Amino acid sequence: xxxxxxxxxxxxxxxxxYQAAAPIKDLTWxxxxxxxxxLYLPPDADDLAAFLxxxxxxxxxxxxxxxxxxxxRDGGVxxxxxxxxxxxxxAKAEGLNRVRAGAAALDVNVAKAALEAELSGLEFLxxxxxxxxxxxxMNAGAYGREFKDVLVEAIALDxxxxxxxxxxxxxGFEYRRSNVPADLIFIEALFQATPGEKSAxxxxxxxxxxxxxxxxxxxxxxxxxxxxxxxxxxAWQLIDQAGCRGLRRGDAEVSTLHCNFLIxxxxxxxxxIEALGEEVRAKVKAASGVELEWEIKRIGTKG
Length: 303
Description:
This protein is of the alpha+beta class. It has 3 domains: 5-86, Uridine Diphospho-n-acetylenolpyruvylglucosamine Reductase, domain 2; 89-215, Uridine Diphospho-n-acetylenolpyruvylglucosamine Reductase, domain 3 (2-Layer Sandwich); 221-299, Uridine Diphospho-n-acetylenolpyruvylglucosamine Reductase, domain 1. 25% of the residues lie in helices and 25% in strands. The strands form 6 sheets. Strands 6-7-13-11-12 form a 5-stranded antiparallel β-sheet. Strands 1-2-5-3 form a 4-stranded mixed β-sheet. A hairpin with a 3-residue loop joins strand 6 (91-94) and strand 7.
């Protein structure tokens, strides 16, 4: 991959910052993978829109927030990686029992905003370790609810920087995916809730927190659920039945606590983590005939 200096010279002037050959592994929960050719940090939606309007159309763009469900390969990511930061982290209740949140807002902070406003129905977001933008893209869900159950509308920018509003129906939600064009960049979402008792909402959020702590390796370097649940099956059960619990490649391991989680115990590379995941897929296919589908998003080229 190029150093990024030549690409930087082709990019439009912005108020945000560019960094060529930027190490991005520490921006992901796995703490693995290669650099971004160029990393762009937009301060707000207006700057991002101006960038999109003028950036050359042949430049590849990749967007992520906290990198909780993301695996970067060791060869790095070509083009521009756009990291949405503080200017996209708002989460606040508004009229009609709704909560508006920026695409980089942590799901847990959206749940907390609803709690403070005594609004129920968004407690499940406490159990999703990611941001609103990623949740919109993959119809994230936990504890019996999904984004499709609570979304009123999403706001995105297209490749020309124009704002696009999408209703719940227009998102084309399916299990762990939406059918929105890949080049749309989400900047905001509006969620519907209902009035509730603050003590009951808080109790449900505590219940979800305790359940996650007891069943998932939340203090490890992981990317969350690795594979989608196939129809009629639970991915972790298939992985366990195939004898993959505790399987390792170097510092990469299939979690012994919840075997649909891969863990980086220290120095595992992005390629090693992905190879371990592919080994799990092969063993499950051989044992059960079921082909697991990755839930974690993998980006970049192999080293």
